[in-house]
Amino acid sequence: MRTLTICPPPPLLLLLLAGLRTPASGLRCYRCEGDGTCSVEECPKARQSCRTTSLWDEDVSSSVMVKKEEKSCAWAGKPNSSLTYLTGQTRITLLENHCTTDLCNKRQDRVGSTPARGGLECVTCGSSDLSCERNMHRTMRCSPQDQCVDLTSYSVPDESAPDERHIRGCGQLSDCSGPLGFHNNHTFTLLRCCNSSLCNGGPVTHHSLLPPNGVKCRSCWGNSTHGCSHREESTISCQGPMDHCLEATGMHELWGPQAMVKGCATAGWCKSPYLSVYGGLDQVEVRCCSDGLCQHQSTPRSGTTPHPHLALSSFLALLVPLALAPSL
Ligand SMILES: *[C@@H]1O[C@H](CO)[C@@H](O)[C@H](O)[C@H]1NC(C)=O
Ligand SMILES: *[C@@H]1O[C@H](CO)[C@@H](O)[C@H](O)[C@H]1NC(C)=O
Ligand SMILES: *[C@@H]1O[C@H](CO)[C@@H](O)[C@H](O)[C@H]1NC(C)=O
Ligand SMILES: *[C@@H]1O[C@H](CO)[C@@H](O)[C@H](O)[C@H]1NC(C)=O
């Protein structure tokens, strides 16, 4: 049986939503939990956007559709994202929409299940029925705006936890013109988008298949006393397209105000540091460098100002339970 993790929402998502530490100003949004209870919240300055994140789960033979939804204030400047794929007898659609006027996230976003016309044809599979791993690739017709998507994400070395290690299908994901990825000793994520027919096929990605690229970075997850102390930090060889060293610090409920994540990232991931948010960090500072081990660090780039490219954050957190996260 497929068990996509949305209900209850992943703890990290809740952490994100709970991280409201700046004073309120202006915008109000609906806030709805996965169980359907809703209230109105005043957004803090850094989160001047209203978010709706929905998961639609449709049985393709009976057309029975189950919908789960969460709403809240969110970082400003985030684009809308979507991802659709088939696994077993089910068609899964994930949507994240953002809008910026008072209480604008009220409306129910509808998903059409009729096959789209004029879109790409993409390979589709999901790990929950092992269709990706077994190369049992079906195809699906995408909406005209969609690209073909190939997402891999799991914890290292224990790969057993997340039930959707691989997802292939149709989607609209921002900043996804080149590969987007991050890995360290605890986690591996690689997202690729492409826009020609069936371009997301081929064998599934695994970190053991990606050759080292010569860059070495520090790897850890935690804080300076737990997880990221000098004793616990390791040096890893970066693989595949992940040839930049990333170091992010921020506020984390468990790890405190100086929580850190270190590892290897693609250039694109450095520009849109969603791991930081995805990892449950608030008020994030990100450094990325290409000269190995970040020895010649420049000044922190993003500070506490809202980042325009935190595109996938909670969206990815919904898709891919972050197995590296310490249990709460
Ligand atoms: C995102 O979708 C909402 C409708 O759900 C729309 O109002 C908004 O303009 C869209 N934003 C972008 C950046 O396309
Ligand atoms: C298709 O992909 C290429 C390469 O990733 C990109 O340059 C181009 O803008 C994309 N076209 C569309 C319509 O998305
Ligand atoms: C990190 O991973 C490498 C390669 O898998 C391993 O050799 C090393 O012992 C790991 N370090 C830690 C601290 O887990
Ligand atoms: C680091 O994390 C541990 C475990 O959660 C916590 O007990 C400790 O207070 C944190 N250290 C700092 C400096 O925040």
Automatic annotation (TrEMBL):
<dbReference type="InterPro" id="IPR045860">
    <property type="entry name" value="Snake_toxin-like_sf"/>
</dbReference>
<dbReference type="InterPro" id="IPR016054">
    <property type="entry name" value="LY6_UPA_recep-like"/>
</dbReference>
<keyword id="KW-1015">Disulfide bond</keyword>
<keyword id="KW-0472">Membrane</keyword>
<keyword id="KW-0449">Lipoprotein</keyword>
<dbReference type="InterPro" id="IPR018363">
    <property type="entry name" value="CD59_antigen_CS"/>
</dbReference>
<dbReference type="GO" id="GO:0098552">
    <property type="term" value="C:side of membrane"/>
</dbReference>
<feature type="domain" description="UPAR/Ly6">
    <location>
        <begin position="215"/>
        <end position="306"/>
    </location>
</feature>
<keyword id="KW-1003">Cell membrane</keyword>
<feature type="signal peptide">
    <location>
        <begin position="1"/>
        <end position="26"/>
    </location>
</feature>
<keyword id="KW-0732">Signal</keyword>
<keyword id="KW-0675">Receptor</keyword>
<protein>
    <recommendedName>
        <fullName>Urokinase plasminogen activator surface receptor</fullName>
    </recommendedName>
</protein>
<keyword id="KW-0336">GPI-anchor</keyword>
<keyword id="KW-0325">Glycoprotein</keyword>
<keyword id="KW-0677">Repeat</keyword>
<feature type="domain" description="UPAR/Ly6">
    <location>
        <begin position="27"/>
        <end position="118"/>
    </location>
</feature>
<dbReference type="GO" id="GO:0005886">
    <property type="term" value="C:plasma membrane"/>
</dbReference>
<dbReference type="Pfam" id="PF00021">
    <property type="entry name" value="UPAR_LY6"/>
</dbReference>
<feature type="domain" description="UPAR/Ly6">
    <location>
        <begin position="120"/>
        <end position="208"/>
    </location>
</feature>
